[in-house]
Amino acid sequence: MEDEQLHALMRAVLRADRILIVTGAGLSADSGLPTYRGLGGLYNGLTAEGLPIETALSGPMLRRDPALCWKYLAELGRACLGAEPNAAHRAIAELQRRKPGCWVLTQNIDGFHRRAGSPPERLIEIHGTLEPLFCQSCGQVDAGLDVHVQRPLPPRCAQCGGVLRPPVVLFEEMLPETALETLYGELREGFELGISIGTTASFPYIAEPLLLIQRAGGLIAEINPGTTALSERVDIKMKGRALDIMSQLLGHSLSE
Ligand SMILES: [Zn+2]
Fold first, then answer.
1. 230 plus 106 within the same structural domain
2. Are 212 and 197 in contact (CB under 8 A)?
3. How much distance in Å is there from the Cα of 162 to the middle of ligand 1?
4. Helices and strands of the chain, counted as H and E runs
5. pLDDT in tens, the chain (256 residues)
6. Residue 113 a catalytic site member
7. How far apart are CA 93 and CA 180, in angstroms?
8. Domain residue limits at 213
9. Are 137 and 161 within one domain?
Protein backbone atom coordinates (compact mmCIF):
# COMPACT_ATOMS: atom_id res chain seq x y z
CA MET A 1 0.00 0.00 0.00
CA GLU A 2 2.76 2.43 1.02
CA ASP A 3 4.76 1.24 -1.98
CA GLU A 4 1.81 1.94 -4.24
CA GLN A 5 1.57 5.47 -2.89
CA LEU A 6 5.33 5.97 -3.31
CA HIS A 7 5.15 4.82 -6.93
CA ALA A 8 2.17 7.08 -7.58
CA LEU A 9 4.13 10.01 -6.16
CA MET A 10 7.22 9.09 -8.22
CA ARG A 11 5.17 8.97 -11.41
CA ALA A 12 3.54 12.31 -10.60
CA VAL A 13 6.95 13.91 -9.91
CA LEU A 14 8.41 12.54 -13.15
CA ARG A 15 5.46 13.77 -15.23
CA ALA A 16 5.12 17.25 -13.74
CA ASP A 17 7.08 20.32 -14.81
CA ARG A 18 5.40 22.72 -12.40
CA ILE A 19 5.56 21.48 -8.79
CA LEU A 20 4.81 23.38 -5.56
CA ILE A 21 6.42 21.92 -2.44
CA VAL A 22 4.92 23.25 0.80
CA THR A 23 6.97 22.65 3.94
CA GLY A 24 6.50 23.11 7.68
CA ALA A 25 8.03 22.42 11.08
CA GLY A 26 7.97 18.62 10.66
CA LEU A 27 10.68 18.87 8.01
CA SER A 28 13.12 20.67 10.31
CA ALA A 29 12.12 18.60 13.35
CA ASP A 30 14.15 15.84 11.68
CA SER A 31 17.16 18.19 12.02
CA GLY A 32 16.48 18.35 15.75
CA LEU A 33 14.90 21.82 15.69
CA PRO A 34 12.21 22.49 18.27
CA THR A 35 8.96 24.08 17.09
CA TYR A 36 8.21 27.35 18.88
CA ARG A 37 5.88 25.37 21.17
CA GLY A 38 8.73 23.06 22.00
CA LEU A 39 11.11 25.78 23.18
CA GLY A 40 12.96 24.92 26.37
CA GLY A 41 11.62 26.05 29.72
CA LEU A 42 7.98 26.24 28.73
CA TYR A 43 5.68 24.92 31.42
CA ASN A 44 2.18 23.90 30.26
CA GLY A 45 2.77 26.06 27.21
CA LEU A 46 3.59 29.12 29.34
CA THR A 47 6.92 30.95 29.53
CA ALA A 48 8.72 31.60 32.83
CA GLU A 49 6.93 34.97 32.75
CA GLY A 50 3.57 33.15 32.67
CA LEU A 51 2.79 34.14 29.08
CA PRO A 52 1.63 32.01 26.17
CA ILE A 53 4.58 31.71 23.76
CA GLU A 54 2.39 33.35 21.08
CA THR A 55 2.32 36.50 23.26
CA ALA A 56 6.04 36.42 24.08
CA LEU A 57 6.93 36.08 20.37
CA SER A 58 4.52 38.77 19.13
CA GLY A 59 5.00 42.09 17.35
CA PRO A 60 3.41 44.04 20.22
CA MET A 61 5.78 42.35 22.73
CA LEU A 62 8.85 43.25 20.64
CA ARG A 63 7.77 46.90 20.95
CA ARG A 64 6.67 46.77 24.62
CA ASP A 65 9.42 44.56 26.07
CA PRO A 66 12.11 43.82 23.47
CA ALA A 67 14.31 41.98 25.98
CA LEU A 68 11.53 39.49 26.78
CA CYS A 69 10.64 38.88 23.12
CA TRP A 70 14.33 38.54 22.29
CA LYS A 71 14.84 35.95 25.03
CA TYR A 72 12.75 33.53 22.93
CA LEU A 73 13.97 34.78 19.54
CA ALA A 74 17.54 34.13 20.72
CA GLU A 75 16.55 30.65 21.84
CA LEU A 76 15.16 29.93 18.36
CA GLY A 77 18.28 31.49 16.85
CA ARG A 78 20.66 29.34 18.88
CA ALA A 79 18.69 26.20 17.97
CA CYS A 80 18.87 27.04 14.25
CA LEU A 81 22.56 27.95 14.38
CA GLY A 82 23.29 24.68 16.14
CA ALA A 83 21.47 22.47 13.60
CA GLU A 84 21.90 21.59 9.94
CA PRO A 85 19.59 21.02 6.99
CA ASN A 86 18.85 17.29 6.60
CA ALA A 87 18.61 14.85 3.69
CA ALA A 88 15.02 15.90 2.97
CA HIS A 89 16.03 19.58 2.53
CA ARG A 90 18.82 18.42 0.21
CA ALA A 91 16.46 16.15 -1.76
CA ILE A 92 14.06 19.06 -2.27
CA ALA A 93 16.93 21.28 -3.50
CA GLU A 94 18.00 18.48 -5.88
CA LEU A 95 14.44 18.16 -7.22
CA GLN A 96 14.46 21.94 -7.85
CA ARG A 97 17.74 21.61 -9.76
CA ARG A 98 16.20 18.96 -12.02
CA LYS A 99 12.87 20.76 -12.39
CA PRO A 100 13.18 24.47 -13.19
CA GLY A 101 9.42 24.78 -12.55
CA CYS A 102 9.66 23.46 -8.99
CA TRP A 103 8.95 26.00 -6.22
CA VAL A 104 9.12 25.81 -2.43
CA LEU A 105 6.68 27.55 -0.11
CA THR A 106 7.87 27.24 3.49
CA GLN A 107 6.62 28.30 6.90
CA ASN A 108 10.03 27.56 8.41
CA ILE A 109 12.18 30.49 9.54
CA ASP A 110 15.40 28.48 9.92
CA GLY A 111 16.78 29.25 6.44
CA PHE A 112 17.55 25.55 5.92
CA HIS A 113 16.15 25.43 2.36
CA ARG A 114 18.66 28.09 1.30
CA ARG A 115 21.48 26.38 3.14
CA ALA A 116 20.58 23.07 1.45
CA GLY A 117 20.82 24.74 -1.97
CA SER A 118 17.26 25.68 -2.90
CA PRO A 119 17.45 28.61 -5.35
CA PRO A 120 16.31 31.78 -3.50
CA GLU A 121 14.37 32.93 -6.59
CA ARG A 122 12.10 29.86 -6.31
CA LEU A 123 11.76 29.91 -2.53
CA ILE A 124 8.89 31.66 -0.75
CA GLU A 125 9.58 32.08 2.96
CA ILE A 126 6.10 33.11 4.05
CA HIS A 127 7.04 33.60 7.74
CA GLY A 128 10.35 35.29 6.94
CA THR A 129 13.74 34.23 8.32
CA LEU A 130 15.89 34.81 11.41
CA GLU A 131 18.64 36.56 9.43
CA PRO A 132 19.89 39.12 8.63
CA LEU A 133 19.03 41.29 11.64
CA PHE A 134 18.20 44.92 10.91
CA CYS A 135 17.69 48.06 12.98
CA GLN A 136 14.08 49.02 13.59
CA SER A 137 15.06 52.70 13.90
CA CYS A 138 17.49 53.37 11.04
CA GLY A 139 17.20 50.23 8.89
CA GLN A 140 20.91 49.36 9.12
CA VAL A 141 21.48 45.66 8.35
CA ASP A 142 23.49 43.68 10.88
CA ALA A 143 24.02 40.09 9.81
CA GLY A 144 25.48 38.76 13.05
CA LEU A 145 22.73 36.70 14.67
CA ASP A 146 25.40 34.28 15.91
CA VAL A 147 27.25 37.13 17.67
CA HIS A 148 24.18 38.81 19.11
CA VAL A 149 22.63 35.71 20.71
CA GLN A 150 25.76 35.50 22.90
CA ARG A 151 25.44 39.12 24.10
CA PRO A 152 23.01 40.93 26.44
CA LEU A 153 19.55 41.18 24.88
CA PRO A 154 17.98 42.85 23.03
CA PRO A 155 20.69 43.33 20.39
CA ARG A 156 21.31 46.97 19.54
CA CYS A 157 22.30 48.81 16.37
CA ALA A 158 25.98 49.79 16.25
CA GLN A 159 25.01 53.00 14.46
CA CYS A 160 22.07 54.44 16.39
CA GLY A 161 21.45 52.16 19.37
CA GLY A 162 18.00 51.11 18.10
CA VAL A 163 16.70 47.59 18.77
CA LEU A 164 17.59 45.05 16.06
CA ARG A 165 15.11 42.48 14.82
CA PRO A 166 15.08 39.59 12.36
CA PRO A 167 13.00 39.77 9.16
CA VAL A 168 10.65 37.21 10.65
CA VAL A 169 6.85 37.33 10.92
CA LEU A 170 6.06 37.48 14.65
CA PHE A 171 2.63 36.61 16.02
CA GLU A 172 0.07 39.37 15.33
CA GLU A 173 2.17 40.65 12.41
CA MET A 174 1.19 40.68 8.73
CA LEU A 175 2.56 38.21 6.20
CA PRO A 176 5.15 39.77 3.86
CA GLU A 177 3.34 41.26 0.89
CA THR A 178 5.98 40.46 -1.72
CA ALA A 179 5.99 36.78 -0.68
CA LEU A 180 2.19 36.63 -0.99
CA GLU A 181 2.28 38.34 -4.39
CA THR A 182 4.90 35.88 -5.65
CA LEU A 183 2.88 32.94 -4.34
CA TYR A 184 -0.38 34.02 -5.94
CA GLY A 185 1.37 34.98 -9.19
CA GLU A 186 2.84 31.48 -9.45
CA LEU A 187 -0.50 29.89 -8.54
CA ARG A 188 -2.09 31.76 -11.44
CA GLU A 189 0.56 30.24 -13.75
CA GLY A 190 -0.63 26.89 -12.41
CA PHE A 191 0.99 23.79 -10.90
CA GLU A 192 0.49 20.17 -11.96
CA LEU A 193 1.51 18.82 -8.58
CA GLY A 194 1.50 20.08 -4.98
CA ILE A 195 3.35 18.25 -2.22
CA SER A 196 2.75 19.09 1.44
CA ILE A 197 5.67 18.04 3.65
CA GLY A 198 5.74 18.10 7.45
CA THR A 199 3.01 20.67 7.93
CA THR A 200 -0.37 20.36 9.61
CA ALA A 201 -1.64 22.86 7.00
CA SER A 202 -3.67 24.54 9.72
CA PHE A 203 -3.18 28.05 8.28
CA PRO A 204 -5.57 28.88 5.41
CA TYR A 205 -2.73 30.40 3.36
CA ILE A 206 -0.96 27.01 3.50
CA ALA A 207 -3.93 24.71 2.76
CA GLU A 208 -5.55 27.00 0.18
CA PRO A 209 -2.75 26.99 -2.44
CA LEU A 210 -2.78 23.17 -2.43
CA LEU A 211 -6.55 23.01 -2.74
CA LEU A 212 -6.39 25.54 -5.59
CA ILE A 213 -3.95 23.27 -7.45
CA GLN A 214 -6.33 20.34 -6.99
CA ARG A 215 -9.38 22.31 -8.10
CA ALA A 216 -7.50 23.34 -11.26
CA GLY A 217 -6.96 19.66 -12.12
CA GLY A 218 -3.56 19.05 -10.50
CA LEU A 219 -2.62 16.31 -8.07
CA ILE A 220 -1.84 16.94 -4.42
CA ALA A 221 0.23 14.73 -2.14
CA GLU A 222 1.04 14.74 1.54
CA ILE A 223 4.10 13.44 3.38
CA ASN A 224 3.43 13.42 7.12
CA PRO A 225 3.62 10.83 9.90
CA GLY A 226 0.30 12.08 11.28
CA THR A 227 -3.16 13.02 10.07
CA THR A 228 -3.69 16.67 9.14
CA ALA A 229 -6.35 19.06 7.89
CA LEU A 230 -5.39 17.99 4.35
CA SER A 231 -5.14 14.21 4.78
CA GLU A 232 -8.73 13.55 3.68
CA ARG A 233 -8.37 15.70 0.58
CA VAL A 234 -5.05 14.62 -0.89
CA ASP A 235 -4.69 12.29 -3.89
CA ILE A 236 -1.53 10.64 -2.54
CA LYS A 237 -0.89 10.18 1.19
CA MET A 238 2.52 9.03 2.40
CA LYS A 239 2.50 8.36 6.14
CA GLY A 240 6.06 8.82 7.33
CA ARG A 241 8.97 11.13 7.88
CA ALA A 242 10.06 13.46 5.09
CA LEU A 243 13.64 12.37 5.70
CA ASP A 244 12.94 8.75 4.67
CA ILE A 245 10.39 9.37 1.94
CA MET A 246 12.15 12.20 0.08
CA SER A 247 15.39 10.22 -0.09
CA GLN A 248 13.53 7.19 -1.45
CA LEU A 249 11.66 9.34 -3.95
CA LEU A 250 14.83 10.92 -5.33
CA GLY A 251 16.75 7.64 -5.25
CA HIS A 252 14.09 5.87 -7.36
CA SER A 253 13.61 8.75 -9.77
CA LEU A 254 17.35 8.81 -10.42
CA SER A 255 17.38 5.23 -11.62
CA GLU A 256 14.54 5.70 -14.15
ZN1 LIG B 1 20.08 51.89 13.82
1. yes
2. no
3. 5
4. 11, 9
5. 578 999 999 999 999 999 999 999 999 988 888 776 666 666 677 899 999 999 999 999 999 999 999 999 999 999 999 999 999 999 999 999 999 999 999 999 999 999 999 999 999 999 999 999 999 999 999 878 999 998 999 999 999 999 999 999 999 999 999 999 999 999 999 999 999 999 988 888 999 999 999 999 999 999 999 999 899 999 999 999 999 999 888 876 544 4
6. no
7. 21
8. 2-33+85-130+174-255
9. yes
Instruction: Name every residue whose Cβ is closer than 8 Å to that of residue 3 and which is 6 or more positions away in sequence.
Output: none
Q: Are 105 and 209 in contact (CB under 8 A)?
A: yes
User: Per the residue annotation, which of 7, 89, 113, 127 is the catalytic one?
Assistant: 127
Cα–Cα distance between 145 and 21 in angstroms, integer?
Answer: 28
Residue 204 and residue 184 in contact, taking contact as beta carbons nearer than 8 Å: no
CA distances 226 to 8, 198, 242, Å, are 20, 9, 12
Among candidate residues 114, 167, 172, the one with its CA nearest the CA of residue 139: 167
Measured from the Cβ of residue 44, the count of other Cβ atoms closer than 10 Å reads 5
**Does one domain contain both 234 and 179?**
yes
Find the 159 Cα to ligand 1 centroid distance in Å: 5
